[in-house]
């Protein structure tokens, strides 16, 4: 598919490469768009901070510790032995 995109003159072929598909690459156009949106929409910085896990929204999930008794056990066994654990 990458070859056919390149033959058509498209520059989208880079999106099929592993680092880009895994989300570990930022392009200049992505950052430019994000900066513009942050300037125009005041909630954008808060939104990005929530996406990155820097901030928490009220009522959102939280981290908790897991005791050694639960390590290497299947979720279904933990669920059967203890109270229901909701997944959001």
UniProtKB/TrEMBL annotation:
Keywords: Ion channel, Ion transport, Membrane, Potassium, Potassium channel, Potassium transport, Transmembrane, Transmembrane helix, Transport
Keyword Ion transport attributed: yes
Cited InterPro entries: K_chnl_Slo-like (IPR047871)
GO terms under cellular component: plasma membrane
Tree of life domain: Eukaryota
Compartmental location: Membrane
Mode of membrane association: Multi-pass membrane protein
TM regions (residue ranges): 20-39, 59-75
GO molecular function, one term: outward rectifier potassium channel activity
PANTHER family according to UniProt: CALCIUM-ACTIVATED POTASSIUM CHANNEL ALPHA CHAIN, SLOWPOKE 2, ISOFORM D
Protein's UniProt name: Potassium channel subfamily T member 2
Gene label: KCNT2
């Amino acid at each position: 598919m990458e070859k056919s995109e390149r033959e058509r003159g498209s520059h989208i072929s880079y999106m099929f490469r592993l680092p880009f598909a895994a989300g570990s690459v930022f392009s200049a156009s992505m950052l430019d768009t994000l900066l513009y949106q942050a300037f125009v929409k005041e909630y954008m910085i808060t939104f990005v901070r929530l996406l990155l896990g820097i901030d928490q929204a009220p009522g959102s999930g939280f981290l908790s510790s897991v005791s050694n008794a639960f390590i290497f056990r299947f979720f279904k066994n933990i669920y059967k032995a203890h109270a229901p654990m909701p997944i959001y």
